[in-house]
Amino acid sequence: MIHFESVTKDFGTRTAVDQVSFTIDKPHMVGIIGRSGAGKSTLLRMINRLTPATSGRIIFNGEDILSLKGAMMRRWQRDCAMVFQQFNLVPRLDVVTNVMLGRLNAQSTLKSMFNIFSADDVNTALAALDRLGIVQEATKRAEELSGGQQQRVAIARALMQDPHMVLADEPIASLDPMNAKIVMDALREIHERDNKVVICNLHTLDTARNYCDRVIGMRDGKVVFDGEPELLTTDVAREIYGADESFNEAATSTAIDTPDASVRKTDPAGAMTPAAAAVV
Ligand SMILES: Nc1ncnc2c1ncn2[C@@H]1O[C@H](COP(=O)(O)OP(=O)(O)OP(=O)(O)O)[C@@H](O)[C@H]1O
């Protein structure tokens, strides 16, 4: 599906991502972990073309997406929707318009300039908000919502792009554990129900273990671990984080409580329960 070949990013003399190669050949939910500065965000931003790579190739459907330009590049950016730590909503715009902004790349410049959306756009946006359990907030301004709600709006906006894959750059880093769980449940549900690749940068080991099918560990720009979460032992984690014997996993925990042992084994028809969605 997507193949990384010696992908490298230098910022001046600093190599943020160093010859990274791996393949995602199944619609997995992939977690990327590592200490601050390991290169996680830079890697994700290169996929989405927000940060230009220094060298290497990222092949998707036989095409090197790092060489796409103009309309083809914008098309690719629509195909791999990005969710950010700080949500990146337009605070004064209402929620449903924020969601419809996910369609901007798909319509004419004139329509985009005046935020002209069709009835179909409105209905699709409302359906996305409904799926995320926040359709009742559709007419509120984005700034009136809690952080967890705003992140769900951002995910609805990503869905509006009808992407091949969703990239999430530390989507729960600004959230409390309850909201973190709701947002991770939502990403997992998108992965399971729509069979989409979700690549998620995470600070916390327990979240990666609970939600991801595959975990990639980065250290100093290099991939130092790539495997199923079951293989992510404390020793391996110590290696990824470059920590000594005193390494305490709890220090990387968001304490997300997953009551049913593992959400990775939930009902594929809908991992996010309305009850969970209604809490925020
Ligand atoms: N625009 C930039 N200019 C210069 N250096 C940068 C830039 N962006 C990132 N870096 C450097 O690249 C390295 C990797 O940064 P990156 O943000 O990718 O790491 P990260 O693993 O996502 O960290 P965090 O978890 O703190 O977000 C760091 O040393 C960082 O200082």
From TrEMBL:
Segments forming domain ABC transporter: 2-245
Signal peptide: none
Highest taxon, organism lineage: Bacteria
PROSITE patterns on file: ABC_TRANSPORTER_1 (PS00211), ABC_TRANSPORTER_2 (PS50893)
Coiled-coil positions: none
GO molecular function: ATP binding
Gene3D superfamilies registered for this protein in UniProt: P-loop containing nucleotide triphosphate hydrolases
InterPro entries: AAA+_ATPase, ABC_transporter-like_ATP-bd, ABC_transporter-like_CS, ABC_transpr_PhnC, MetN_ABC_transporter-like, P-loop_NTPase
KW Metal-binding (keyword) present: no
CDD domains in UniProt: ABC_PhnC_transporter (cd03256)
Keyword set, alphabetical order: ATP-binding, Cell membrane, Membrane, Nucleotide-binding, Translocase, Transport
SUPFAM superfamilies the record matches: P-loop containing nucleoside triphosphate hydrolases (SSF52540)
Protein family membership: Belongs to the ABC transporter superfamily.
Name of the protein in question: Phosphonate ABC transporter ATP-binding protein
Source taxonomy: Bacteria, Pseudomonadati, Pseudomonadota, Alphaproteobacteria, Hyphomicrobiales
